[in-house]
């Protein structure tokens, strides 16, 4: 919604952030229809929600818009259940893998098809056949995936990622927004687990693999974004509620639950910035960063200034004048 172009002004996004919030308040109850799902349980051989309304609204809003038309570069992970392989819909890969230039509606429906919640999503793009489920099966935390894409572009000498000055260090700025988590309270001593059957292990493995995948991502990101930011030019901001009220369910679209979610988001902005200790894998506050709201404002300013520089670069290049020469001459005049 933020990267799809608005048909009335293709330089602007389809939705503003406030409109996205209102979209979920208005249509969440239809996407996650609790009445239709009232008789569902884990033993029933189909998804809890049929996805029909989601398909309808996604196609209506995004229409024929394709991946190459997004306002900025995007990287969207999915998993193909037929090929048993990840499928990464990346703006950077379209020249070499044209089949990835699918309709945004199809990509969104594929990456949102959470197993057991929404049905797997099947579609064709030209001669290519996709059978997709939730991207979390590929990348539990898309942050690491985004950084990998940037590093690949740096290695390929993409001009959009080249510093203005030759001796200027490369700086990666990353914003990662989580969906909230609650502390895991179950403790399983080895003396008890040694008597578990396969069926006993299945739910524990599902939870454990999901949690550990996220923690390992934090471990990898520490090498690019050290907690001691003074030792790196890179900047990483993680916005996450680590103590989410356990009564708030992801698919509960009652008015009361939706209001709780909105309040949780508002309260999160007022909290101090937290970073992950990759030894204990526990978050801790970083007072020097201020609140999440303050950190977001600083990050927005960084991105705004970067965008102005990129637009300036493209403008100068169109005029046949090297961007670096134009920038340095402006400084010399002052």
Structure notes:
- With about 325 residues, the chain is of the alpha+beta class.
- It folds into 2 domains: about 5-135, Cytosolic phospholipase A2 catalytic domain (3-Layer(aba) Sandwich), CATH 3.40.1090.10; about 140-295, Cytosolic phospholipase A2 catalytic domain (3-Layer(aba) Sandwich).
- The protein has 9 helices and 10 strands.
- The chain has helices at about 15-30, 50-60, 105-110, 140-155, 190-195, 200-225, 255-270, 290-320, 325-334, and strands at about 5, 10-15, 75-80, 85-90, 120-125, 130-135, 175, 235-240, 275, 280-285.
- The protein has a 4-stranded antiparallel sheet. A two-stranded antiparallel ribbon has the order 1-2. Strands 7-8 form a two-stranded parallel ribbon.
- Helix 2 packs antiparallel against helix 3 (about 105-110).
- Mean pLDDT is about 85; it is low at about 325-334.
Estimate nothing, just give the exact number of structural domains: 2
Radius of gyration: 22 Å
Query: Under the CATH scheme, which class of the largest domain?
Result: Alpha Beta
CATH topology category name of the largest domain? Cytosolic phospholipase A2 catalytic domain
How confident overall, as mean pLDDT? 87
| Major sheet strand order | 4-3-6-5
